[in-house]
Structures are given as C-alpha cells and as structure tokens.
C-alpha cells in the first residue's frame, strides 16, 4: 500500500481544491464587476441611449425634411405647370387680341377705302357734270357761231340752239358709250 499512498498527490498541490488565493481573486473580480456596474456602465449606457435617441431624432427630422422637400417639389412642379398654363392662356389671349386688332384694322381700312372711293366717285361725277355744263355752254356757243357762219344767218333763237346742242351732246355720249362697250368686249 505504500506504493499507492506515495503515488497520491498531497492536498496542497491539487488544483481542483480552491485555496485562499482563489477567494481573494474572486472577491477582487466581484469588486471590479460591482465598480464597473455602479460607476462605469451607467454613464456609458446613458451616453449610448442619448446617442440612440439623437440618431432616432435625426432620422425623424430627416424623414420630415424629406417629406417637406417632396411637398415643396410637388408644389414647385404644380406652380411651374400652372405658370405654363397661364403663359399659354396669355399667349392665346394675345393672339386672339392681335387677330381682333388686325380684323378691326382691316375693317377700318376697308371702310376708309370705301369712303375714299365714294368721295372720288362723287368728285368725278361732280367734275363730269361741271365739265358737261361748261362744255354744253361752250359747245352751244361755238356751234351756234359756226352754224351762223356756215348758214350765213343769225341763229339767235335760244330754244333751237339748246335743242341742237343737246342732240349733239347726246350723239357724243352714245358714241362714247358704244366705244367703251366695244373696248370691254374686245378685252374679254
């Protein structure tokens, strides 16, 4: 049996049996854990919580700013579309006003042309009548004096000389209107 007991290891050197050093180390470790839990970890947790809250708040503000930016973009887009529609409406109104002004100016020009033509025709008719009156008087006088020279007698009868002058002028007008008709027929 001696060999069996000599082979057994004494109690002090057995690592499975705790000794006083182990308990001191365990107490130091527990003290260190308590100090960490009491003074170090709570400020770190508060800082981490504050940082997480700040990040959540920043995300919320970012989402809010993004929604505001989207709303502003939509409003800007709608304002641009509205401005384009307004510009198109103003252009169309200007185009319509321009067309109305042009039509009005054409009407005024046409009325002015008609007035000028009527005035010119009236002036021509008045000049023609005046020329005819003057021509009748002069032709009557010339015809009477020429007839007196040819016949050798005096033709002072006013009624007879007026008839001769009127017949001469009527023949002249007939000749003139037939030449105008022939000129129109030849031009066609």
TrEMBL record:
Coiled coil: 55-100
Cell location: Cell membrane
Keywords: ATP synthesis, Cell membrane, CF(0), Coiled coil, Hydrogen ion transport, Ion transport, Membrane, Transmembrane, Transmembrane helix, Transport
Primary location: membrane
Membrane disposition: Single-pass membrane protein
Protein family (similarity comment): Belongs to the ATPase B chain family.
Protein name, UniProt field: ATP synthase subunit b
Organism: Nocardioides taihuensis
